[in-house]
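tool_call: predict_structure(chain=1)
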Amino acid sequence: MGKTVLIVEDEQNIVDILSFNLSREGYDTLEAYDGPTGLQLALEQNPDLILLDLMLPGMNGFDVCAKIRETGNAIPILMLTAREEEEDKVLGLELGADDYITKPFSMRELLARVKANIRRVGMVPLAGGSIAAPVQDGRRVSIDEERATVYKDGSPMDLTQREYDLIRYLAAQPGKVFSREALMEHVWKGEGCVGDVRAVDVAVRRLREKLEDDPANPQFIKTKRGMGYYFGE
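tool_result:
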C-alpha cells in the first residue's frame, strides 16, 4: 500500500506542484487549503506524513501542529513557511514538528525530506531486546526495541519518532556525553534541520517534559555543562 502525504497549504499552485511531484514518486496525497480542514483530515485519515504551511486561513500551522500532538498523534510533520525567523523555526519544533523547510525550496530537497521522515518512522530496529535504565528512587525507564516503545514505571510513553530515536541512542551508552553536533549527526543523520543544533535542545526539552518527574531537575536525560547530554547512570 502506498504512503499518503497530507498537504495543508492555502496556495493552489503550490498544492498542485506538490501533489504532482509526490504522485510521481508513488505517494498518495490529500489536500487541505485551510487549518481546520487540515486538522480534520490529519486526525480522520491518519496520513503517513503532513506537509504543513504556517500561514493558513482559519487556524495557523502552529495551532494545527499543537492540536495534532495534543491528541497523542505522532505523524511526522514537515512545516513549510516563507518566513525565515529563527523564533518561528524553534517554536515549530517545540510544538512537535519533526522538520522545517523554508520557501522557496527545491522539489528535490523536499522529496528527500519527505522520504527520510517517512522512512524513519517505518524503520525496523536492527537489534531486538531492551535497554533498561537504572532504577532511581523507585523509577525505571526501559526501551523495547522490538516494539519501538519506551516504558516508564511499566507504562508505555507517547513519544514522537524523533524523541524515541533520541532516547534510544543516548540510553544505548549510558553515562557517555554526546555533544549536540554528535547527536545531530547520529540521531538526525543529516536530515531536516541540518547544522541547526538548537533542534537538539528543543528535542531534549520536549523529551524531558514527558520523561522526567521534574524536567528542571532531570534524572534520566542529563546535561554536562559545556559538553552535551547523556543518559544518567
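agent: Residues 48 and 67 are 17 Å apart (CA to CA). Proceeding to next step.
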